[in-house]
Amino acid sequence: MIVEFGDTIDRAVNERVLLLNQKLNRLRLPGVIETIPTFRSLLVLYDPVKTSSSNLKALIAQVLEKKTSASSEATLWRIPVCYAPEFAPDLPDVCARTGLSAERVVALHLERQYRVYMLGFLPGFPYMGDLAEPLRLPRRADPRTRVPAGSVAIATSMTGIYPVESPGGWHLIGRTPIKLFDLNWDPPSLLAPGDVVMFEEIGVEEFRQIEQAAESDLYRPAREKIRV
Amino acid sequence: MSATCGLKVISPGFQTTVQDLGRFGYQAFGVPVSGALDHLSLRIANRLVGNPPNTAALEIFLYGPTLEVQVKSTRVALAGGGVLEVTTAPRRLVSSYQTVYLRRGDVFRAGASLRRSSCAYLAIQGGVALEPVLGSLSTSVRAKIGGFRGRSLRAGDVLPLAVYEVEQRAEWALPAVPKDDSYQPIRVVLGPQDDYFTTQAIETFFTAEYTVTEEFDRMGMRLAGPKLEHNNKGYDIVSDAITTGAIQVPGSGQPIILLADHQTTGGYPKIATIISADIPRVARKRPGDKIKFMPVSVEEAEQIRRDQEAELEKLFESIRTTDPNRITEPEELYSLNLISGVVNAAD
Q1: Which among A160, B177, B202, B334 would be 20 to 30 A from A218, CA to CA?
Q2: A19 plus A119 within the same structural domain
Q3: Which domain holds residue A147?
Q4: pLDDT digits (tens, 9 = 90+) for B80-104
């Protein structure tokens, strides 16, 4: 069953999705297997042998009726990114298409706090927005078959990080040395929907140091609770 | 115990993976569910060898592996299709839906030539000795998560077993294999994005016949048939969550059925969703098979699923002992398989 709150990428819509998600996770309704929040809707996976959609519809309507505001607290992550040419194969192309200098692209990418709208596509892949208007480009016409793990990328109004090596069609403008996904963690993803992310520029030297520390699970990016 | 205690893979088959009923609870973090393409056959196989329903077994896809027993003794059962052929003395053929007791050194082929189904399950009494990942032993081949080292089996692997010796007893079998209902239409609930298609496209979807193409794996099944036209809303949606059985239609207008290893989210409109009761039937289809779709309501879909569960319970209760030394001639099995949907497997 899908509870739809809108058909656009919109912060207020996403907040309502995550609020319902939180409430349903707390309620642990019988027959509900799991819930999957996305930009604009919440998928409620249920076992029809144990419950029914009409039953769930009524329960969810009750939950939605209770007016509670979204939590005003969020986790802010500071994620180190190196924008050096060796990690940013698409930066020249992004500059050419936007008419901006590389410094300006990086500055625009660094200046904002991004909201993690949802995780999807790959285990631990965060869809984060909203990107500054001048950086918004369609996906690459020719997707890559191999995007290295840690690649920081942009496409449309979103920025994302590839947690593992995979095919991908976004523009690669940098790379983070940190791990975003580890099966030994519970939950396995560093980021959760509703989190806030800021990028911090690092040099190649620092990238290598953090990469080594992250490899042996000794590095965790800075995080704090903020009011949103 | 060392890694030499288990089932040694002599040849791996097309794609043989460890699967249980799936890795639920982590889709919000982008982790696919995976699990058996045909959970009904997995549960039947497990039931025959006396395992709990969620015990991990080997999923055989398109054609099966050759394995050597490297424990003192074990008991296995094949379900979903195919035969199990013991190639060491005493050579014998064991039909699916029947358990067989095997000793150290026995070599057997399981589901070597699947004809009627794309997948089958080999359950092993006691299961496999692997560490669950995020609560499940299922293998996600694409995400390289779980099962045996996050991948399908290769020649030379030794799949560690949980039990090294099993009791000798009467073997168990289903008196008749489950009804063949492959010719019946696949039932779907319309949506969630049926409003992205023309009225003509919806009509075509329910009247035309689609063919399963070679592009079929654990992630999805690409169909070929009359083009399904999107309306003026286009074919890009704001990404939302995907369930197993969702039928997405990209710009080509050719539908793709998403199966166990599907991504958790996607940006193509989904014209309809296969009801959960019919997902095993779809997963059993083979390249070249035909599919017709039929609409049902959510309420009907739920009732069909409940009835299916009751049927499965009845099937479980029908399991009875069989002569362990019964040898079935391959011709007999194949001819029965070809002629009739019901194979008498017990007497």
Answers
A1: A160
A2: no
A3: 74-227
A4: 999 999 999 999 999 999 999 999 9
Enumerate chain A positions whose Cβ falls within 8 A of a Cβ in B: 2, 4, 7-9, 21, 33-43, 45, 48-49, 52-54, 118-125, 127, 164, 181, 183, 186-189, 192-193
Whether B250 and chain A come into contact, CB under 8 Å, resolves to: no
SS3 assignment for A101-158: CHHHHHHHHHCCCEEEEEECCCCCCEEEECCCHHHCCCCCCCCEEEECCCEEEEECCE
Helices A102-110 and A91-98: crossing angle in degrees, nearest 10, is 100
- Taking the alpha carbons at both ends of chain B, their separation in whole angstroms is 39
Same domain for A106 and A206?
Answer: yes
Is the separation of the CB atoms in A121 and B30 below 8 Å?
Answer: yes
Q: What is the CATH number of the domain that holds A111?
A: 2.40.100.10
Q: How many domains does chain A have?
A: 2
Same structural domain, A143 and A202: yes
Tokens of B28: 């919000």
- What is the SS3 assignment for B313? helix
Same domain, A51 and A144: no
Q: Does B264 touch chain A (CB under 8 A)?
A: yes
Instruction: Give the integer Cα–Cα distance in Å for B292 and B211.
Output: 9
Asked if the Cβ–Cβ distance from B299 to A54 is below 8 Å, we say: yes
CB B307 within 8 Å of CB B275:
no
A220 and A154, same domain (yes or no): yes
- At B95, is the secondary structure helix, strand, or coil? strand
Q: Are residues A111 and A223 in the same domain?
A: yes
**B171 has pLDDT over 90:** yes
Return the higher-pLDDT residue of B234 and B249.
B249
B325 falls in which pLDDT band (50, 70, 90)?
A: low
Contact B299 A52 (CB under 8 A): yes
CATH code for position A42: 3.30.1360.40
Q: At what angle do helices A11-27 and A53-65 cross, to 10 degrees?
A: 120
Same domain as A145, residue A106: yes
ipTM: 0.93
For residues A170 and A85, membership in a common domain is answered with yes
